[in-house]
Amino acid sequence: MKTSARNRLPGTVTEVRIEGLMAQIGLKVGDNHVVALISAEAARELDLKVGDRAAALVKATSVMVVKEP
């Protein structure tokens, strides 16, 4: 697979919740947790299940960076 997205966060699926037209997908990425909202159709096509290896691809025009004290 080729993609123009440069921010790739590989992890493990921790949650798959499909409701109506949308799906909520949880990923454990290292010590962090990422939640993505995708279409239910996409979730079914990817056949996502808890425990699967997957990656969050982030491509955004606005990303905030904060410094912790």
Q: How would you explain this protein's 3D organization?
A:
The chain has 69 residues and is mainly beta. The chain has a domain at 7-48: RNA polymerase II/Efflux pump adaptor protein, barrel-sandwich hybrid domain (OB fold (Dihydrolipoamide Acetyltransferase, E2P)). The protein has 1 helix and 4 strands. Strand 1 (7-19) and strand 2 form a beta hairpin.
Features:
69 residues, OB fold (Dihydrolipoamide Acetyltransferase, E2P), 10% helix
Detail the topology: elements first, then pairings:
Blueprint: E1 7-19, E2 22-29, E3 32-39, H1 40-46, E4 53-58
Antiparallel strand pairs: 1-2, 1-4, 2-3
Quick description:
By secondary structure, this protein is mainly beta.
Quaternary state reads single chain
- How large, in whole angstroms, is the Cα Rg? 13 Å
Helical content, roughly?
Answer: 10-25%
- Walk across the major sheet and give the strand order: 3-2-1-4
